[in-house]
Amino acid sequence: MSTVSQVLRRPRYAAVAAIIAVALGVLFWALTFNFTPTPLPQYIPMYGILFTVTTVTMGFVIAVLTGISTSLIMCRKEMTGSLGFRKGAGSSACGAFTGVVASGCPVCTAPLLGVFGLGGALAVLPFQGLELKALAIAALGVSLYYTSRNVKMACKL
């Protein structure tokens, strides 16, 4: 992960990562607690403190990983003039999309999954949709690995 730290030492890329992470973190918080029928005071008794803390933590991890991944992609684009990704870009987009889909409360995610023919999928998931967040974190982790390798080779960091 030395490539990630080298890229994030540059103020421009650190700022991009921070802005995206904060924006997605705020969006996650708003989707989970402000624009749903279950604000935070009702969410905790309804789902439990452990589920609530896990949901919030995973949401912010997704936001941070998306910010870092975007910074790496920007660095690659600006230094070489092309994206040049195969594995990294696909898993980054997949991870970010899954993170966005999973960012709301479990009840609010069901209609969105219904668009893709997976409306009843949350009913069979034992952890009420946290699996989607774990999937998003895994996809973003894979994306970060391949993207950092790609940036290291292309940008000679």
Q: Would you mind describing this structure in some detail?
A:
By secondary structure, the chain is mostly helical. The chain has helices spanning 2-8, 11-34, 40-47, 49-80, 87-101, 106-115, 121-124, 130-155. It is built from eight helices and no strands. It has one domain (2-155). Helix content is 80%, strand content 0%. Helix 4 (49-80) runs antiparallel to helix 5 and helix 4 (49-80) runs parallel beside helix 8.
pLDDT averaged residue by residue: 76
User: If you compute it from the alpha carbons, what radius of gyration comes out, rounded to the nearest whole angstrom?
Assistant: 17 Å
Determine the strand fraction and express it as a percent band. Answer: under 5%
Q: What characteristic shape results from the CA principal axes?
A: elongated
Q: Could you list the spans in which at least 5 consecutive residues all have pLDDT below 50?
A: none
Helix content: over 70%
Run of helices and strands = HHHHHHHH
Helix/strand/pairing category: mainly alpha
Tally of individual helices: 8
Oligomer: single chain
Count of domains: 1
Q: What's the main sheet like?
A: none
CA-to-CA gap between the ends? 11 Å
Number of strands: 0
Produce a short descriptive summary.
With 157 residues, the protein is mainly alpha-helical.
